[in-house]
């Protein structure tokens, strides 16, 4: 586990070192990738995240999705089921709050909750990835739990990782609960993987 923690620290430092200009360019390049992505074009309900700690910004993408009349959902820490996520509809007027990790999320409103199985795509943040689609997250296991049914039965929304190019590493030390991703978008490339 210490290898994983060391890798997290290294890659988080690497992405935090990107300048504001580099971050803005990367966000625009991500948008361009998504504007040509068949799955994104076909999807109606897309889960995204708001960038934190140097993550690749999804704001240009979110604004474009709204303009395409697509529904955007954000993860919210489940209030009664620790370690799990809810997905709430996100609009330009959604009241926001900060969760215990200091990450912005929509205020909990049961009328805005969508079961994650009804999403078309879940865009997952990640700390690092390798060339076989293994994903290293922040260590809470939230997305691994959310994507467990997809991993076992290919049921529910397709996961799509989002990362800066600098977050690619040679290999990730994996655990049994890790869910490898079938696809990852970076500013420069669309990665597709054969995941078992």
From TrEMBL:
GO biological process, one term: folic acid-containing compound biosynthetic process
Residues that bind ATP: 4-8, 135-143
Catalytic activity as recorded in UniProt: (6S)-5-formyl-5,6,7,8-tetrahydrofolate + ATP = (6R)-5,10-methenyltetrahydrofolate + ADP + phosphate
Chain residues that bind substrate: 50, 55
EC number(s) given by UniProt: 6.3.3.2
Cofactor(s) this protein cannot do without: Mg(2+)
Highest taxon of the lineage: Bacteria
Family assignment from sequence similarity: Belongs to the 5-formyltetrahydrofolate cyclo-ligase family.
PANTHER family attached to this UniProt entry: 5-FORMYLTETRAHYDROFOLATE CYCLO-LIGASE, ATPASE INHIBITOR/5-FORMYLTETRAHYDROFOLATE CYCLO-LIGASE
Protein's name in the database: 5-formyltetrahydrofolate cyclo-ligase
Organism: Aeromonas molluscorum 848
């Amino acid at each position: 586990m210490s290898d994983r923690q060391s890798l997290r620290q290294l890659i988080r430092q690497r992405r935090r070192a990107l300048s504001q200009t580099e971050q803005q360019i990367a966000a625009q390049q991500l948008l361009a990738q998504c504007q040509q992505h068949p799955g994104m074009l076909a999807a109606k309900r897309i889960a995204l995240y708001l960038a934190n700690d140097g993550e690749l910004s999804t704001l240009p993408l979110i604004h474009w999705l709204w303009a395409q009349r697509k529904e955007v959902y954000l993860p919210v820490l489940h209030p009664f089921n620790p370690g799990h996520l809810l997905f709430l509809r996100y609009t330009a007027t959604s009241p926001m709050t900060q969760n215990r990790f200091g990450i912005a999320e929509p205020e909990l409103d049961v009328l805005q909750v969508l079961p994650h199985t009804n999403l078309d795509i879940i865009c997952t943040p990640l700390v690092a990835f390798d060339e076989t689609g293994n994903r290293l997250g922040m260590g809470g296991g939230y997305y691994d739990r959310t994507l467990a049914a997809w991993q076992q039965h290919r049921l529910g929304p397709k996961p799509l990782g989002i990362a800066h190019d600098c977050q690619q590493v040679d290999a990730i030390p994996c655990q049994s609960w890790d869910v490898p991703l079938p696809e990852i978008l970076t500013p420069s490339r669309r990665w597709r993987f054969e995941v078992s």
